[in-house]
Amino acid sequence: MKNFIMLAALLSLVSSCGSSSKEKEVRTFDKDYKVVDASEKSIPDWIDTPEKGESESKAKGNRYFVNESANIQKRLCIKSAEARATSRIASEIAQFMKNSYAEATQDGEDEVTSYMQEQLAQEAQSFIVGASVVSTYWEKRAYKEDMGADANKTEYNCFALVRMSKKNLEKAVNKSRAKLVDGLEDPEVKKKTNTALEDVASKFSSLDKKVELTEE
Q1: Do residues 177 and 200 lie in contact, with contact meaning Cβ atoms separated by under 8 Å?
Q2: For 125-134, what is the mean pLDDT?
Q3: Rounded CA gap, 163 and 83, in Å?
Q4: Does residue 208 have a pLDDT over 70?
Q5: Global pTM value
Q6: Digit-coded pLDDT (tens) for 85-115
Q7: How confident is the model at residue 23 (pLDDT cuts 50, 70, 90)?
Q8: Which of 196, 195, 201, 216 is nearest to 127 (CA)?
Q9: How do beta strands 132-143 and 62-71 pair?
Q10: Are 70 and 157 in contact (CB under 8 A)?
């Protein structure tokens, strides 16, 4: 009986240590502002997880993009967030193509990647067709010096969620890819690039999370 009690205690200790090690530390941050008004009572889930902005059945055929902006005027703040969210589509296309190329060729600093970094996002923007705003969210924030802000001020912070069909996304990526390849003069570089980005359109449209941008 004594051995059984000791074994039970040991198992209980191991179990508690295992569960505590799996618990993640919850970080808290001191904000330098107070939210004095907002368009919704709670922060929308789609800000961190864009595909949660619509039902699962509708989200299946689309990809979603989020961006934010700030302005002292609410209308300008919302419009700017919408424009930034739409432009993020092109930025993610360029970033994903650059990442895919570097991974396939093991080269991240050649002529092609330099072009992708500097020009591709701007050119991809012209191929963005059919993108539409799904939702917006705004907060009116009062920044306070005694809370750590640089100055006392009030401004709006806005978020916009934009969707684009996977079909249109693939068209945009393929056009961006063709634009890139057609602009290369060296036949070997052209061939290498074409091979490295062969399936980039379908891979990009099937992503289930946003592409982290190295520069924005």
Answers
A1: yes
A2: 96
A3: 12
A4: yes
A5: 0.81
A6: 999 999 999 999 999 998 988 866 677 888 8
A7: low
A8: 201
A9: unpaired
A10: yes
**If you ran DSSP here, which 8-state letter would residue 26 be given?**
P
Of the listed ranges 18-27, 51-60, 159-168, the least confidently predicted one is 18-27
3-state SS assignment for residue 141: strand
Query: Could you tell me the two tokens for 9?
Result: 């205690």
Q: Are the beta carbons of 175 and 93 closer than 8 angstroms?
A: no
Residue whose entry in the numeric block shows the structure tokens 């924030």:
141
pLDDT tier for residue 29 given thresholds of 50, 70 and 90: confident
Distance CA 67, CA 84 (A): 6
Centroid of chain to Cα 210? 4
* End-to-end Cα, the chain, rounded Å: 67
Chain-centroid distance of CA 182 in Å reads 29
Name the residue ranges covered by the structural domains of the chain.
Answer: 32-205
If one counts every other C-beta atom within 10 angstroms of the C-beta of residue 141, the result is 21
Cβ–Cβ under 8 Å, residues 81 and 136: yes
Closest CA to 127 of 185, 173, 191: 173
